[in-house]
Amino acid sequence: MEETQGILDAIGSWLQTVSIVPDDYREYAQLVVDGLLFFLGRLPADRLEAIVAAQLAIPEDASADDRLVALVRECPTLHKLGQVIARQAGLPLELRARLQALESLVPPAGSYDVPALVAREIGAIPGLSVEGDAFAEGSVAFVAGFTWEPEPGAPVRHGVFKALKPGAQARLLEDLAIWPDLGVHLAERSHAAGLPRLDFRTLLDGVAHLLRSEIRLDLEQERMAQARRWYAGSTDVVIPELFAFCTPRLTAMERIDGVKVTDPSVPPATRRKLARTIVGALLAKPFWTPEACAPFFHADPHAGNLFATPQGKLAIFDWALTTRLSEAQAAAVVQSLASAAMLDELGVRAALAELGDIVDAAAVCAGVAAAIGAVRRGAFPGFGWLTPLLDDLGRSGAMSFPESTALFRKLLLTLTGVIRDVCPGASIDDVLIAGGGRQFRSESWRRPLAPYDSRAFGTHVSNRDLVALLGSFALTPARYMLGMYRDALDLILR
């Protein structure tokens, strides 16, 4: 116990001397340090010793970035948490750049005995040559290259193995056992420090779900095969092909060369095209599709999973986490946007109630009123408007979202950050509206024959919904005038 406390004291002293949190967020610095020490203090002694050994192996003049990377390499949950928040728009560039380095790390040489691991898993494969070192790693897995000559004289295939880090599953389970208490601890410390109310439990639960999915390589292989079939007709999207010697613990797939879509080497013209392709492939295509034949959404589209190929195509990796929206949920998204366009606060709140449970009705009313006020002042009521509204209501605890909606919300947040970094000024709504318009035109001939209440369309809108929207449209001028009067009154009373 004394030895463990000594290690924690040493880590605590280091955390107090480095600037993990930028100056703009200095009020959160002590909360971050307290949270890390709470988490580390509940790890087994051997894990703490490994963390300290990793820190001692770094030169004394190493940067905070290097020390942060060394810390999270030993803690898969901290690694994934960093990835989740790396593209958040509200964070300073300094912190975002630090966290974005976690999206794809290059492990030190000799970190993994790749040939031995592959041999234990699949035995000897004729014509297979495995590279000795991994060239990338994430929170729970690493990637190493190989070449395969299926038959003598046949074209050589280039591929990569994705395998779980040795001991990753055990470390993950140890980490996750601490998180429920960590959420309570952070909430209590945040309240005591007078910081804004944040829903730590939902954030930590979401990251935990991400990690539990990432250790199921067999499920990822199944989803990747489905995604490859779904995008087979696309000329701008590439999904890796799986090789026959995959196992539940080892994925063997086609190697696709490229760089992260956010890499500075990608030409501006390619970036503009990539931004549209990313939104079209990962959001518009699956959203504007009838539920009966809709694919899943890729629910972890950070830049480490999105590559630009030398041909300017979009390569999409890591299909461990996906989500689907039900017909009712997709319809609620459309209804919330349509109601916002007509300045209908009641309509937006009704749509939100279909997406999750309202915990604090007054906070939801205030949040919707503020969001509608922004529309009244010129904001476009699209996905760029809905994303921060859902995020604010979720983070504050005003609403509780089911898993599918929570993952869709995370998808919107992550994609918004990635698109901003790929091509500043690019609009998610431009691509989505164009896709929705094409879908509406393509299904218009079926509408006269469809049941009045049927939402079995890619636009998720029934004929009844269209009639109701037309009726609501007539009230928009009155809502606008009433809202302007209320704004003026609020200004006078301040």
What this model shows, in words?
The structure is a single chain. The protein is α+β, with helices and mostly antiparallel strands and 494 residues long. Among the domains are: 147 residues, no CATH class; 167 residues, no CATH class. The protein has 19 helices and twelve strands. The strands form four sheets. A four-stranded antiparallel sheet has the order 1-2-3-5. A four-stranded mixed sheet has the order 4-9-8-6, covered by helices on one side. It has a two-stranded antiparallel ribbon with strand order 7-10. A hairpin with an 8-residue loop joins strand 2 and strand 3. Helix 4 packs across helix 5. The chain starts with a helix and ends with a helix.
* Main beta sheet strand tally, sense and closure: 4 strands, antiparallel
Instruction: Please mark out the parts with pLDDT under 50 across 5 or more consecutive residues, or reply none.
Output: none
Task: Report mean pLDDT, rounded to a whole number.
Answer: 85
- Structure annotation, total helices: 19
Brief descriptors of the model:
494 residues, alpha+beta, 4-stranded antiparallel sheet, 19 helices, 10% strand, globular
